[in-house]
Amino acid sequence: MRWSGLLVAVVVALGLMAGGSDVARADPGGVTAGHDLLETVSEQGAESYINFGCQPLPPGFFGPGSDPFDGQVKLQGDPFDTFGAYSGLSPTDTIWERLEDTGESFPAEIHVEIVQMELMSTVPIIVTYYGGMNPEFWLMEVRVKDGQPEQVPGTMTVQHDEGTDGGTFDIELPVVVDLIFTQLAPPGMTITYEDYGPLEYQAIEEPWCHTANPLAVPPGQEVIEKVGLTTNFFPGIVCGPPRTKTVVELDADLYQCDYAHLDVQAAEKEAEPPAVGGIAEAPDADASPLEATASGGSSAPPYAVIAGIAAGAVLLAAGGWYARRRWHCGY
Length: 331
Known about the structure:
The protein is an alpha+beta fold. The chain has two domains: 1-30 and 301-331; 33-285, no CATH class. The protein has three helices and 17 strands. A hairpin with a 3-residue loop joins strand 6 and strand 7. Helix 1 (2-26) packs antiparallel against helix 3. The relative contact order is 0.17.
């Protein structure tokens, strides 16, 4: 009886060690500086736009006699696949960079900066001349390349919700863009408005999670992760369960005028099928423990696995000792 009681105590203790991994993941953890890969949403009720009614393009901008342009231009993503040395990013069209770590005390305020954005008008805009005459169709592109135009960092305030693997964030993100207009009819001129803005984008209490995958909603998709580029912060991810991806809504006002709006979500791709036999792909050898956990889709730290193995060994050893004792004692 004494040995059986001891055996139960050992198994319970090891079980608590193994089960403690979920509690550990729910404890507040620092957010590491890094980049967030985003795609612009232009369907299912979401929309992104620049409203030139707040700050019209001046007369003559498109050539002699062109009228001021004060329309609203709806935007969609123009995805790029590479950023620096990283590839496989499509359908990413926007990247912002969190410039500092947060530490483990929340709420935490850090600086954030737009580093790349590539959008385009969903349909051509109509430019007129001499008071509404001679309409022409032009396409508009919105561009921020890394370092061009020069940006002013904004701020992000990160809140970690108690007992969860994430929380919410507020963001104030000034964005200076180049606007590129291309005439669709001959002669097909291109006109660039350099350093337009800043568009003072803001969002309040948007969700984030330390880990992005596996996603339950939308099914069959996974958020793009790149070791060395993305870290342990994913905007627009509700930790769940179920883990869900949502739209982050950013508004920019100018003198109480609805200047611009941007709907983005974490960039996703079709989830890769599991390996033959159901064995998951091993995490990158160079990945940190946090990155290996995120890429492998498992939250259990190594000590939980070790504890489980130890518990099995104790059970086998105790069972063998008990059987031998019963045989020697003639039971």
